Nudix hydrolase domain-containing protein
Amino acid sequence: MSDLKYTTSSTLLKRANTVAELGDLPSNGVNVIVQNKLGHYLLVHDGKKWSLPGGGIKQGETSNRAALRETLEETGLMVIGKLILVADVQLVIKWKHKVLLFKAIDWNGIINPLMKDEIREARFFKPEQIKDNPDIYRAQRVFIQIFETAYLKLPLPVYALASDPPVIEW
């Protein structure tokens, strides 16, 4: 994967802190970064490839509630404590998407996907197993790269474009 490009924008930072623009795009969703104490990432397998837990935001549902629901449904784990907004990501795969990327600070439970018709397996991956792994959806690898490159260095929500190379603005 190419290095990320960076620009700064106070208005984009404000945009990353709000979900007001969610209605502007045809498809809206959430993904959640869940890590164990070793820093490994929890990924789920949909029968084709691996991804971060996540999915669509239902009508009338907040993005936080969607993140909590999707994590529980796809992994069997319950997020406890805080969910932190990491990034507001725009990507185009057949159509334009807006994805809010969250980080689960703490969780409990046993990995056991509840949505067995959607998720075949869930397990932790070491960071070095993720980069350039063709069995993980490219957009998901980009989301993890955004988290590692931007958020871990400057823990503020960022606005990102999942392009090649990805672009981060804050």
